[in-house]
Specification:
This is V-type proton ATPase subunit H. InterPro entries: ARM-like (IPR011989), ARM-type_fold (IPR016024), Armadillo (IPR000225), ATPase_V1-cplx_hsu (IPR004908), ATPase_V1-cplx_hsu_C (IPR011987), ATPase_V1-cplx_hsu_C_sf (IPR038497). V-ATPase is a heteromultimeric enzyme made up of two complexes: the ATP-hydrolytic V1 complex and the proton translocation V0 complex. It comes from Chrysochromulina tobinii. 70% of the residues lie in helices and 0% in strands. The chain has 451 residues and is mainly alpha-helical. The model has no long low-confidence stretch (mean pLDDT 91).
Length: 451
């Protein structure tokens, strides 16, 4: 049986010899009757039975996973529990309650944590999914502090396992890794709750997720697209936490630029939808709204208005983001937008680059912070992107034209020898702007060149 390729429905069609486990003393006769009342029933019947006998059924699942080590039975049990908790998330609350009610004697988290390190990949994935739901469930009100500490320890242990797996596998190999797949499945379940989000953030989940976003955009294979979707889904869930959203919006993590690039380039609607939903959740957080404008989300949204999507949620997200960011855009100066674009190193032919008024109004701003904008422009003359090279050459030419000391400042920053090399670029547009740039660098009275 290739369990790894089987769906939940496939697994649940198999038969489990429950009586043999009762005969061996692994489950009691009462538990045998209980499992028969649950097994093969419609999921709504299973949910109702769980609500009727919550602790007895939680104890039953704990005993099965603790005492029976046959892979097919463990998988069957995990799938049953996964399906039931999917149908009603509140079922997960009964498992921490069992720990409290039995004063820690029955602890269903322990066999699940054990399965993460001692099982075949298909069991690890399902155990991680179930554990993500159960560990993220809050402790019952009024629970004794030592038992609450036990629940917190299980939660942090699971969150740390998730992050360690994400860090263990190289991002370039992650989409084909069974361990990464299991970790992401568990993470998606974990961050569905605020308690789980807090634990994932404490385990420092954002850096590896950010790395996976970067790597996943480099391939269009089905497994890579699925991993990107799972990663974005986890980030979207995390963005409901104010603490996580603040960290996601920081320039250090760099997620805003990546999310904008995904909405621009991804052909998959499910990926676009969850990227837009994440951006929506980050609106108004720190400098996130400004960064969305700076990284070019507005023209991407404008282009999306003309597209037809099968997913009805996408146009709604596009409209909302456009309206909010339009208000934000009105509060920004042209220099704010230009400076932020310059810092990203991804130059676009936005209006500032070709606006005479922009250069007349802002040429002195290039001297800020020890001529930092000038140094950045010169640095971009080494870019491998033809568009960036062309715009950088054009901007240096405009700065020399409008700044009385522009030629001297740009020369001091080392532009001349680099611009000479750019002249050799095979792209005709780059050559055109590089030629103008070099002419203005070389000739003091460059304005006479056109006479």
């Amino acid at each position: 049986m290739k369990a790894a390729a089987m769906s939940n429905e496939d697994v649940l069609r198999s038969e489990v010899p429950w009586p043999s486990f009762a005969s061996a003393g692994m489950i009691s006769r009462e538990q045998l009757e209980l499992i028969y009342s649950l097994d093969k029933q419609p999921v709504r019947t299973q949910v109702a039975l769980f609500h009727d006998k919550p602790l007895a059924l939680a104890a039953l699942f704990n005993d099965i996973l603790t005492c029976i080590n046959k892979d097919d039975v463990v998988l069957y049990t995990l799938v049953m529990l996964d399906v039931i908790t999917d149908a009603d998330a509140s079922i997960a609350l009964y498992f921490p309650k069992l720990i409290i009610e039995t004063k820690g004697v029955a602890d269903p988290m322990k066999p699940l944590l054990k399965l993460l390190s001692q099982s075949p990949p298909f069991i690890v994935q399902k155990a991680a999914t179930v554990l993500g739901k159960l560990a993220g469930a809050p402790a019952p009100p009024g629970a004794p502090e030592p038992l609450v500490a036990t629940l917190n320890l299980h939660l942090s242990s699971f969150a740390e396992w998730v992050v360690s797996v994400l860090k263990e596998v190289s991002p370039s190999e992650a989409s084909e890794s069974a361990k990464t797949n299991a970790s992401m499945s568990g993470l998606q379940a974990l961050v569905a709750t605020m308690r789980g989000r807090k634990a994932a953030l404490a385990a420092e989940v954002l850096p590896p997720l950010s790395m996976l976003v970067t790597t996943s955009t480099l391939s269009s294979s089905s497994t890579t697209v699925q991993l990107l979707y799972q990663t974005l889904f986890s980030l979207w869930s995390l963005s409901y936490s104010a603490e996580a959203a603040l960290e996601m919006a920081s320039s250090k993590v760099g997620l805003i630029a990546k999310l904008v690039e995904i909405t621009k380039a991804s052909p998959k609607e499910k990926v676009i939808r969850v990227a837009l939903s994440t951006l929506r959740n980050l609106l108004g957080v720190a400098n996130a709204s400004n960064d969305m404008v700076f990284f070019g989300l507005m023209p991407v949204l404008e282009a999306m208005h003309a597209r037809k999507f099968a997913d009805e949620d996408i146009p709604e997200e596009v409209d909302y983001l456009s309206q909010v960011l339009q208000v934000n855009l009105l509060g920004l100066t042209s220099w704010d937008v230009y400076k932020a674009e310059l810092e990203t190193g991804k130059l676009e032919w936005s209006p500032s680059h070709k606006s005479e008024n922009f250069w007349k109004d802002n040429y002195k701003r290039f001297e800020e912070n020890g001529n930092a904008p000038i140094k950045k422009l010169v640095e971009l003359l080494r870019s491998e992107d033809p568009q960036v090279l062309a715009i950088a050459c054009s901007d240096i030419s405009e700065l020399i034209k409008f700044h009385p000391e522009g030629r001297r400042l740009v020369t001091q920053a080392g532009a001349k020898p680099i611009a000479m090399q750019v002249l050799k670029h095979p792209d005709n547009t780059v050559q055109k702007y590089a030629l103008t740039c070099v002419q203005r660098l070389m000739v003091i009275n460059w304005e006479y060149l056109s006479r």
